Amino acid sequence: MAPGFLRRPRLAAAVVLLALLAGPAPAGAAPERGGRGDDGGHHPRGRTVDYVALGDSYASGYGGSDVVAECGRTAFGYPALLDALHRVDLQADATCAGATALATDPAPPAGPVDLPQQIDTVLARGQLHRGTDLVTVTIGGNDVRFGDVVAACAGPGLPATCAPAITGAREYARTVLAPGLAASLQRLRDAAPQAELVVTGYPHLFEAAVPGALSVPAQELFNAGTDELNAVISAQLPGDAVFVDVVDEFAGHGIGSPDPWIRLEGGPFDLHPNAAGYEQGYLPAILADASFDDRRGRHGCR
């Protein structure tokens, strides 16, 4: 689908600039699917995991494939990859490229659906309920004006223009994003008290110390800003919810590396994980950190 899913127009200009600065980069081949086996080595025999996916483009798989469905969803987003496991049953994929954690006011007549709207939808349709086993969420990047930060860090005068943009995003995350996200996550926990609530972070986009798309200082600032956003997100989790940090999984595969898992080709999917990023980054991280099979065993099998 067209780059209309990118909530802020400056992101499109920024990724073009980054692509021009970086020059040609290998696209990153998509690995074969299903290498983990039917169960991914993870689920108890005979039990079905009822699953609901929420979040933004990093959840929907925007970038995992050039074949894009409604709201930027692709077959290589981690919801689809989890659903392909033998006993995981994806009840609803409400992820949407461009989505924010905070409610949009006024709500756009069409376009990205924010997290509160996603929750409203799956509740109204009966897809999220007290018997749900697994809920995943990736959200927050669009709230901190990701596109504006990229544009600032890709412009002239670095890192002078990059640092203030990251500082502004950091303060917004701490003072505005944090309480709104905490409220939505608590709402999910209340609606699905038995579910494993899994909230993922964001990877480092750049292989810092490899000059190219951004100066090395700007790359380091941007990656440090990602760490701070991840820390704010993880601090909002209720109770026994799980935060999945994907930074280590993506290490060595940022923009500028020989085998990048982040796209930078001068197109609408730039700055999103490619298929390898989802299959070898997000999916293994979620399977390693989540324990929804054990939770299912504790709560019983319907």
TrEMBL record:
<keyword id="KW-0732">Signal</keyword>
<dbReference type="GO" id="GO:0019433">
    <property type="term" value="P:triglyceride catabolic process"/>
</dbReference>
<feature type="region of interest" description="Disordered">
    <location>
        <begin position="26"/>
        <end position="47"/>
    </location>
</feature>
<dbReference type="InterPro" id="IPR013830">
    <property type="entry name" value="SGNH_hydro"/>
</dbReference>
<feature type="active site">
    <location>
        <position position="272"/>
    </location>
</feature>
<dbReference type="Pfam" id="PF13472">
    <property type="entry name" value="Lipase_GDSL_2"/>
</dbReference>
<dbReference type="InterPro" id="IPR037460">
    <property type="entry name" value="SEST-like"/>
</dbReference>
<feature type="compositionally biased region" description="Basic and acidic residues">
    <location>
        <begin position="33"/>
        <end position="42"/>
    </location>
</feature>
<feature type="disulfide bond">
    <location>
        <begin position="71"/>
        <end position="96"/>
    </location>
</feature>
<keyword id="KW-1015">Disulfide bond</keyword>
<feature type="disulfide bond">
    <location>
        <begin position="153"/>
        <end position="162"/>
    </location>
</feature>
<protein>
    <submittedName>
        <fullName>Lipase</fullName>
    </submittedName>
</protein>
<dbReference type="GO" id="GO:0004806">
    <property type="term" value="F:triacylglycerol lipase activity"/>
</dbReference>
<feature type="active site" description="Nucleophile">
    <location>
        <position position="57"/>
    </location>
</feature>
<feature type="signal peptide">
    <location>
        <begin position="1"/>
        <end position="29"/>
    </location>
</feature>
<feature type="domain" description="SGNH hydrolase-type esterase">
    <location>
        <begin position="53"/>
        <end position="279"/>
    </location>
</feature>
<dbReference type="InterPro" id="IPR036514">
    <property type="entry name" value="SGNH_hydro_sf"/>
</dbReference>
